[in-house]
């Protein structure tokens, strides 16, 4: 990656257009900024009621910020643990469940896997190798 001195000219107060297009600069930004520090994904006032949610990104990772039934705010990777499809396709709302549109796996607002269509028949009673009750979908906090 080019050094910052090559990209930013403090004397002339200019920034090279490469900062917006260079893949090496982009990768370095992802590693040095988004992967190493706290990121703002939502404010709790955006989700005042149980079941309220907003979607956002942490770097390149899509996330759901949701207030659980007991009032706790959680952040989840917006991805079904079965095939990786996004379980929430809207920006904001209120829900009791998030359901994957691919195979219908369903998660509650606490992040627990609570429904798998044809669970016994298709997965022999062992969804993702851990059984159905208590499987969380990539809970971050």
List keywords for this structure.
141 residues, three-stranded antiparallel β-sheet, four-stranded antiparallel β-sheet, Rieske Iron-sulfur Protein, alpha+beta
- The CATH architecture category of the largest domain equals 3-layer Sandwich
SSE pattern = HEEHHEEEEEEEH
Low-confidence stretches: 129-136
Assigned CATH class of the largest domain: Mainly Beta
Secondary structure: helix percent: 10-25%
Biggest sheet: strand arrangement: 5-4-3-6
Shape: elongated
- What value does the average pLDDT take? 84
How much beta, percentage-wise? 15-25%
Number of E-state strands: 9
Quick structural summary:
The chain is an alpha+beta fold and 141 residues long. It is 18% helix and 25% strand. It has two domains: 4-34, no CATH class; 44-129, Rieske Iron-sulfur Protein (3-layer Sandwich), CATH 2.102.10.10.
């Amino acid at each position: 990656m080019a050094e910052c001195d090559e990209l930013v000219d403090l004397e002339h107060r200019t920034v090279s257009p490469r900062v917006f297009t260079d893949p090496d600069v982009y990768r370095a930004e992802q590693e040095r900024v988004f992967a190493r520090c706290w990121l703002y994904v939502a404010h709790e006032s955006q989700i005042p009621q149980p079941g309220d949610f907003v979607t956002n990104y942490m770097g390149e990772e899509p996330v759901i910020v949701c207030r659980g039934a007991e009032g706790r705010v959680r952040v989840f990777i917006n991805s079904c643990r079965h095939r990786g499809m996004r379980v929430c396709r809207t920006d904001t709302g209120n829900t009791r469940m998030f359901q994957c549109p691919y195979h219908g796996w369903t998660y509650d607002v606490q992040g627990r896997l609570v429904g798998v269509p044809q669970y016994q028949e298709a997965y022999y009673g062992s969804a993702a190798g851990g059984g159905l009750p208590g499987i969380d979908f990539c809970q971050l906090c």
